[in-house]
Structures are given as structure tokens and as C-alpha cells.
Specification:
CATH superfamily of the largest domain: Aldolase class I
Strand order of the largest sheet: 6-9-10-11-12-13
Number of strands: 13
Strand content: 5-15%
Shape: globular
Largest sheet: 6 strands, parallel
Radius of gyration: 24 Å
Bound molecules: cobalamin, iron/sulfur cluster
Mean pLDDT: 89
Low-confidence stretches: 2-11, 454-482
CATH architecture of the largest domain: Alpha-Beta Barrel
CATH topology of the largest domain: TIM Barrel
Number of helices: 19
Structural class: alpha/beta
Helix content: 40-55%
Number of domains: 2
Length: 482
């Protein structure tokens, strides 16, 4: 329902869910009759209701994310009414299964889903009980029944190709073609990530890491090219190229086998060394998503990010030199952040002017250390808040939301000024930038910097003693884009 949801319309890159396509192809291989109800382009759940009547499934599986919980719970009710066993899987239900069980699901699958879902489907069709099976949490007469964990698949190469034919691939491809001129598709080459950022939700694969062989990846790329004329791919791995030898082999194959594809991926600045970047560019790299997060080393350390500012700077400069577009993820509002840290982030942003970026307010996802840290300061998760996650504070942060919104606007203004370069005189651009900085220091901060409401109540002392910092702001025009 990407069209109706303003949050999704703005942020979501339209690709069919890779987890669902992978589960579907695995079930099919196991002899199960599967259909996928893809809600990406749907306006409501009427199509699903019709589909449930026609297909009359014995089991209905729902992929869950925090943002879409309300809809998932609605679907559970529809499944129940249609006589199907409602089963939830994916990051959100694995992080807080009790909420989904209370909300209408009979079973929540945790961990890798393929074997567990196949097991459930087979048992359901034989009329056997599904509770206490490995990898599941189910509702029982006296509370929840948790089955033992199911081991991960040993060899990801054995997974069948995703069941692309069960969704309207042409609609996705057409969307991309209209928007970018390219026929874009997404794929995964690995599962898991060994790093440990404190705000990252990893309920399914934890810190485990497995990957397909480069040969298997090339097979999937070829299939996308041959079947769907795909010419641009997004590697959706948590982090692409965690193992140097692996990525080098993949890049070599992409070049020697003349795939002629362009691609993008999400990378870590500590792994993306300039020499590797050059090889990636030669193999077709067009854009990199970089988790920069903050311009303050203190904040990177608090987030347990494991990266250094020098690495950010080195990578940003190398990307610029190679002509690869960079998309920066930046985060404001993480506990411990002060106005000086926000200012440092803005200064870093100014120095490198990434082509694309998102500056979101830190979102405490259930199951993360960040969530635990702010658990007793969470704001009621209203629908509005959930829908505008990234722009709405979901917890009592050090400063009021208006202050963060204003800071987000400063990033936006900066980006707009960089874009306006060449159209407006440098002098005027510099003047606007200086004016915004003066407005920030002289008006916005004195008005907006005050403890959040909860902290002002007696007995609550979450916010640090806030004072308006007096950091010198550079009074120079924006740097030129190299
Ligand atoms: C690729 C990706 C995207 C792509 C999606 C591409 C696509 N269409 O698939 C894009 C960029 C669009 C995206 C967007 C967003 N994403 Co995202 N994304 C990912 C990422 C990196 C990989 C997802 C993936 O394919 N994993 C591989 C598959 C195989 O794993 P899986 O989906 O977990 O599925 C397995 C099991 O969970 C289980 N399973 C899953 N579903 C089901 C259903 C049933 C019935 C069963 C039985 C089992 C089951 O079986 C599957 C196979 O083993 C994950 C991180 C991660 N490692 O999962 C984040 C992640 C899922 N994203 C996340 C977030 C927050 C978002 C955004 C909100 C970001 C934003 N602010 O815009 C949006 C939300 C979009 C939306 N409305 O759904 C969070 C979700 C946290 C949460 N609790 O909800 C994650 C976990 C990142 C993180 N660590 O914080 N994302
Ligand atoms: S944010 Fe990225 S690098 Fe950090 S733990 Fe999560 S997936 Fe790994």
C-alpha cells in the first residue's frame, strides 16, 4: 500500500519483498501450492479479501515490520474469518511476538523462515497441531508456547531463485523505467551482519553471517537479465561486500562475464577502501548508500557503530573522485547527542555535500539496545507517529521535537543551496547560509532548546541540564563541490 501511506510513498524504494519471494519459491519446491498477495500497489485490503475467498488457503503468512503492524493485525483477522491459519514472520513479530499473538495471529515464526513455514504448511494440511514446532511461538491455553530454535540453512546456494513470477514484476520494472529510465530489480547475496550497531534490529539472523557463492549470485543476475531485461540491480544485503575476497571474485565475474549491469548497494565506510571502490565502479557501481549517521565520533561510539570519522571522510572523497553517487544516512536525536554533535554532523554534511541523503530522527526499534535504553521514555506509539517515523520523536529525547525539526530543515536548506549553485550567485548563496546559521544561533536555539515535557515534571530527570552551547559557526560560503 505504498501509495496510500505517506511515509512509504516518500521513503520506500519499490521492490517486491525479497523475503516473501524467497519463502514462496522454497515452499513451491517443497510441493506446497503458493500464491503471493502483494499489497505494494493496493489501496486497501479488498483485493486480499477476494483472493482469500477464491484461493481459500489453509495458511496465510504475513511479513511484519514495525511500521506496518496495524495492517498486519487487520490481515490476521481477515485470515481467521476465511478459515486460514494466520502466521506472522519477519522482524517485528520476531521482536515482540506476544503483541502479534494477542492481536490475532495463531503462530509467530522466529528465525529463518523457509523450513519452519514449510513444516507448518505441511502439518496444517495434514490437520496436525502446529504449536511448539521449532522456530515458532504459538498461543496456548496457558500462555505462549515457544518451540526450540531451528538451525539456519547451511548453504544459501541451495535456495531456489526467488518466485518473481508470483508478483507483477513488470509493474515494478515499469515504475523504475518511468522514474529512472532503468529496469531495476533487487536481490540479496547474504543473510545477516556481524556488526553490532546499538539501534539495529536483528531479530532474525542476529550477528550471524552467511553468503551465497559469487557464481550463484551471477546466476541470479543472469536470470533477472534474461527473464525481465533488468539492467540495474540493488544489492539489498545489510552490508555489501563484508568479505574482501568474496566481493573481488564477484566483481571479477561480473566483468569477465560481461554482465553490463549497473548496481547500487549499502556499504560500510570501514570496508569500502578506495582501491576496492575503483574495482566496484569498473564493474558497474553507480550509487552507494553509506551509513554515516553522525559527524561526531562520540556519537558513533555511543551507537557502537564501529566506524571512524576519518573513514567517513576518506570514503566520501573517494566516492566523489570515482564519480559514484552517494546517499548518506544521518541520524539525529540518539541519546547523548548535544547541539555540538548535531553541529558537527551538519559541518561534515556541508564539507562533502552528498548527492542524496536522509536525516531522520532516531527510531527505537523493539528488540534493540537503543530501545532498552529509552524504554521508559517512549511516547505513546500513535498512528501518526508510526507513520512519520524518522520525523517524529518516538521517545523523550534530549531536546524537544521542534528543535530536531529545525535542525532537519537546516540540512535541507544546505542541500537546496548546493543544488542552486550555478543558478544563483555564490555571494547570495553564502549570504543565505550565513543567515540560516545566525537564525539558528540567535533565534531558534534560544526558543527551542528546553527540556522535553516529561523531564520538566518532578521526579523525571531524563534530559541533561541543557544550556545553549556557544560554538563558533564558520562564516564562509558553502564549499564548492569538487
Ligand atoms: C532490503 C531492506 C529494505 C528494502 C526492501 C526491499 C524489499 N522489497 O525486500 C527497502 C530499502 C525498501 C527497505 C525499506 C524499509 N526498511 Co528495510 N530492510 C531491508 C533489509 C536490509 C533486508 C530485508 C531482507 O530482504 N532480508 C532478507 C530476508 C531473507 O530476510 P527477512 O525479510 O527477515 O525474511 C526472513 C525471516 O524474517 C522470515 N520471514 C519474513 N517474513 C516472513 C513471513 C512469514 C509468514 C514467515 C513464516 C516467515 C517470514 O523468513 C524469511 C526468510 O528466512 C532489512 C535488514 C534485514 N537483515 O532483514 C531491513 C529492515 C527489514 N528494514 C527496516 C526498516 C526500518 C525499513 C524502513 C522503515 C526504513 C525507512 N525508514 O524507510 C523501510 C520500511 C519499508 C516498508 N514499509 O516495509 C528494519 C525493520 C525493523 C522492524 N522491526 O520493523 C530492518 C530489519 C533494518 C534494521 N535492522 O533496522 N528495507
Ligand atoms: S546497522 Fe548495518 S552494519 Fe550496523 S549492525 Fe545493522 S546491518 Fe550491521
Amino acid at each position: 500500500m505504498a501509495k496510500r501511506d505517506p511515509m512509504e510513498r516518500k521513503f520506500v524504494e519499490l521492490y517486491p519483498s525479497l523475503g516473501i519471494l524467497q519463502l514462496a519459491s522454497f515452499l513451491r519446491l517443497g510441493g506446497v501450492d503458493v500464491e503471493v498477495e502483494d499489497l505494494t500497489f493496493a489501496h486497501d485490503l479488498r483485493g486480499l479479501t477476494r483472493h482469500l475467498q477464491m484461493f481459500a488457503p489453509e495458511l496465510l503468512g504475513v511479513h511484519t515490520k514495525s511500521l506496518t503492524i496495524r495492517r498486519s493485525l487487520q490481515i490476521a483477522k481477515l485470515a481467521k474469518n476465511a478459515g486460514a491459519l494466520p502466521v506472522a514472520g519477519g522482524p517485528d513479530s520476531a521482536s515482540r511476538p506476544e503483541v502479534y499473538l494477542r492481536g490475532g495471529f495463531d503462530v509467530v515464526v522466529y528465525g529463518e523462515g523457509e523450513c519452519t513455514l514449510l513444516d507448518l504448511a505441511r502439518r496444517r494440511s495434514r490437520g496436525e497441531p502446529v504449536a511448539a514446532r521449532p522456530g515458532t511461538i504459538a498461543r496456548g491455553p496457558e500462555g505462549t508456547i515457544r518451540g526450540p530454535p531451528r538451525p539456519f540453512l547451511r548453504d544459501l546456494d541451495e535456495l531456489p531463485l526467488p518466485a518473481w513470477d508470483l508478483v507483477d514484476m513488470e509493474r515494478y520494472l515499469h515504475h523504475w523505467q518511468r522514474r529512472t529510465g532503468e529496469r531495476r530489480a533487487a536481490l540479496l547475496t547474504s543473510r545477516g551482519c556481524p556488526f553490532d550497531c546499538s539501534w539495529c534490529s536483528k531479530p532474525t539472523f542476529g550477528r550471524s553471517f552467511r553468503q551465497q557463492t559469487p557464481a550463484r549470485v551471477v546466476q541470479e543476475l543472469r536470470a533477472l537479465q534474461e527473464r525481465y531485461h533488468v539492467d540495474y540491480v540493488r544489492f539489498c544485503d545489510d552490508v555489501f561486500g563484508i568479505q574482501r575476497a568474496w566481493i573481488e571474485e564477484l566483481l571479477d565475474r561480473m566483468v569477465t562475464e560481461k554482465l553490463g549491469l549497473h548496481f547500487e548497494c549499502l556499504a560500510r565506510v570501514d570496508l569500502l577502501k578506495p582501491d576496492l571502490l575503483r574495482r566496484m565502479r569498473e564493474a558497474g557501481l553507480a550509487r552507494v548508500y553509506v551509513g554515516v549517521e553522525s559527524g561526531s565520533q562520540k556519537m558513533l561510539d555511543l551507537m557502537n557503530r564501529g566506524t571512524r570519522l576519518e573513514q567517513v571522510e576518506r570514503t566520501a572523497a573517494a566516492l566523489r573522485a570515482e564519480g559514484v553517487r552517494q546517499f548518506w544516512f544521518l541520524m539525529l536525536g540518539y541519546p547523548g547527542e548535544t547541539l555540538e554533535d548535531i553541529e558537527a554532523t551538519l559541518q561534515l554534511f556541508r564539507r562533502f555535500s552528498p548527492e542524496e541523503y536522509s536525516v531522520s530522527l532516531a527510531v527505537p526499534l523493539p528488540g534493540t539496545r537503543f530501545y532498552d535504553l529509552v524504554r521508559d521514555r517512549l511516547r505513546g506509539e500513535t498512528r501518526r507517529a508510526a507513520r512519520s517515523a524518522g520525523r517524529t520523536l518516538l521517545f523523550e529525547a534530549p531536546y524537544p521535537q521542534a528543535l530536531y525539526r529545525w535542525q532537519q530543515a537546516r540540512f535541507e536548506l544546505d542541500a537546496a543551496l548546493v543544488k542552486a549553485r550555478g543558478k544563483i550567485s555564490e555571494e547570495l548563496l553564502g549570504e543565505v547560509a550565513r543567515l540560516a546559521d545566525r537564525l539558528d544561533r540567535g533565534v531558534a536555539r534560544p526558543i527551542l532548546v528546553r527540556p522535553p515535557s516529561k523531564a520538566r515534571r518532578p521526579g523525571k530527570s531524563w534530559a541533561p541540564r541543557l544550556k545553549i552551547p556557544t560554538i563558533p559557526l564558520p562564516r564562509r560560503p558553502l564549499p564548492p563541490v569538487p
